[in-house]
Design a protein that fits this description.
The protein has 384 residues and is α+β, with helices and mostly antiparallel strands. It folds into two domains: 206 residues, Peroxisomal Thiolase, Chain A, domain 1; 123 residues, Peroxisomal Thiolase, Chain A, domain 1. It has 13 helices and 15 strands. Helix 3 crosses helix 5. 46% of the residues are buried.
């Protein structure tokens, strides 16, 4: 007997941001100074990335105010009106992040632990970087589509700020100064300090659309990885060797981990700029053809970008591939929220979903690149 596949709808969304927005001028008040000196790269990176404000789960003294799991649970509670009756109806929880509070237990079970009113349900933790939130969404989508779940929650969240504080880099800076070398941390390590942000967002997926108001029907979700041909570009908890391979933190001594700031987030900026946009365009072009989607049918284009530097590059690549989408259809909130990795695309969907401009039949195209080893996720939603 053939399984009957169900339609899947996003019926509710919510976001949660810790504390107040942090301006460019205030960043080092929260993250601290490396080697007691203001950053030389900060101004250059901020000029290129276009970010004006972001959020940190920190006090101005650098003390933590929220865990990743707490922020994610708060987003879920906000979405479900903090109503125990609605929370009890969740039958699947899938939480994607690249910055869990600990290696074990998994992020999603820690989120589940923050929602004791819920039932004992299936809980899944996709790992990765920016695509982790989309992997969460796809798992929840497939579970509802096959009838394994009826009310699924998918989340994307990050708490990067804890890994951006100056003490993560201090030993390396001191060692460089002792050696009479430039006492500033390498650009590949400091680059992401000025781009990353904290926050959480959640979606409620159902096999029934909202009885009143709009829902977002998920038409398809597709992904691709180029790790078979590309070396790591963004990494944490390891060091990139000349061979292009990563040496993980478990193969370093505790002293080396601190002295080399192994637990900092790093990015190969040259590898990123040369490949992230062209590779993302390959699968997207195929999807337009395979799905019979005309670019003119796209009403909202939501590309996750780590920096405004990539806006024109994405636009030009779309033109080059014969799938142009004009800027007036783009929704990007990077400048006010910063790069929240696995949560960023959720924030953009939340903004569109709560827009007064929505009309039935409109199509929303999502694009999420992940530079860690060049993975991409794509999705199409229809307003209904």
């Amino acid at each position: 007997m053939q399984m009957e596949l169900k339609e899947v709808y996003i019926t509710k969304t919510a976001t949660y941001f810790p504390n107040e927005p942090v301006s460019n001028e205030e960043m080092e008040d929260f993250l601290g100074l490396i080697n007691k000196s203001p950053s030389k790269s900060k101004r250059i990176v901020l000029r290129n990335n276009g970010i004006k404000t972001r959020y940190y789960a920190l006090t101005r003294e650098g003390k933590p105010t929220h865990t990743n799991a707490e922020m994610t649970a708060l987003a879920i509670r906000k979405m479900l009106d903090n109503d125990p009756a609605q929370i009890k109806k969740i039958d699947l929880l899938v939480c994607g992040t690249s910055s869990p509070d600990q290696i074990m237990p998994s992020h999603a079970v820690m989120v589940h632990g923050e929602i004791p009113e819920s039932e004992s349900i299936e809980v899944v933790s996709p790992s990765g970087v920016c695509c982790a939130g989309m992997h969460a969404l796809k798992y929840a989508y497939m579970a509802v589509k096959t009838g394994d779940a009826h009310q699924a929650v998918a989340t994307g969240s990050e708490r990067f700020s804890a890994a951006l504080k100056s003490e993560i880099f201090e030993d390396e800076a001191k060692k460089l100064k002792e050696l009479e070398e430039n006492p500033y941390i390498g650009f590949e390590k400091e680059f992401l300090r000025w781009m990353l942000s904290d926050g959480a967002s959640s979606f409620l997926l159902s096999d029934k659309k909202n009885p009143e108001g709009f829902s977002l029907r998920i038409e398809w979700i597709e992904g691709v990885s180029y790790a078979n041909e590309m070396e790591p570009c963004m990494y944490m908890g390891g060091e990139k060797l000349e061979s292009g391979k990563l040496k993980g933190y478990l193969d370093y001594s505790p002293e080396e981990i601190q002295a080399k700031s192994i637990m900092s987030i790093k990015q190969d900026v040259k590898l990123l700029s040369e490949n992230i946009v062209p590779l993302g365009g390959i699968k997207l072009s195929k999807l337009f053809k395979e799905k019979g989607l005309d670019p003119a049918e796209v009403d909202y284009f939501l590309p996750h970008m780590s920096s405004e530097f990539f806006r024109a590059k994405i636009y030009d690549q779309l033109q080059k591939n014969g799938t142009p989408i004009p800027y007036d259809k783009w929704v990007v909130n990077l400048s006010s929220l910063g790069n929240v990795g696995a949560g960023s695309v959720y924030f953009m969907v939340d903004e569109v979903f709560k827009s007064a401009k929505l009309k039935a039949g409109q199509k929303i195209l999502l694009l999420v690149p992940e530079s860690s080893r060049f993975s991409y996720m794509y999705a199409l939603l229809t307003v209904c």
